[in-house]
Amino acid sequence: EPEVTQTPSHQVTQMGQEVILRCVPISNHLYFYWYRQILGQKVEFLVSFYNNEISEKSEIFDDQFSVERPDGSNFTLKIRSTKLEDSAMYFCASSGGTWTYEQYFGPGTRLTVT
Amino acid sequence: KNEVEQSPQNLTAQEGEFITINCSYSVGISALHWLQQHPGGGIVSLFMLSSGKKKHGRLIATINIQEKHSSLHITASHPRDSAVYICAAPPGGATNKLIFGTGTLLAVQP
Lengths: 114, 110
Description:
Shape of chain A: globular
Structural class of chain A: mainly beta
Largest sheet of chain B: 6 strands, mixed
Distance between the termini of chain A: 37 Å
Order of helices and strands of chain B: EEEEEEEEEEE
Radius of gyration of chain A: 13 Å
Mean pLDDT of chain A: 93
Low-confidence stretches of chain A: none
Radius of gyration of chain B: 13 Å
Low-confidence stretches of chain B: none
Oligomer: heterodimer
Structural class of chain B: mainly beta
Distance between the termini of chain B: 41 Å
């Protein structure tokens, strides 16, 4: 069964450093998402991406964040200058269509900022 | 803006028990998702439903669109069902994003 994959599974970085989290969505999916979950809190939406551009973003997704689909398979989330409060689990998801389509989640990347 | 509420927040059951987790939401939606999160953190989609009932193995999900309520049932629960169960729904309007509930931590004891 096709699945969403994410790398790395765990990333430790120092405050102020740039990190890139990588995702490979399901190959025929068209909509891509990043969510995050701070330890002990709800999962929250960061950004959605369709047709090579951001379709929606949350208030969390400020200028420090960017997303890119550099080739036909990868979907990346970049944090330019990490802060302690960026420590969280980051989930990538993809779907074949809009809100009536199921979203498939990757296993997550645990980001620890020290 | 859609508020998604789950109950209970924590649930402990004995192996074999029938389990029900509830989810209510505040605005009309087209579909609701039930997800499972294991201690390692990964999220697995269990169901997406827009009406009626869906069944997969020992899991059953129901939704009542008029009452803005959904339930997830687990029949003949097993310790391997121990996980966090999360419902998620779109916030209403033309958006694909999901709003997540706080999750229900289920522990099934042998």
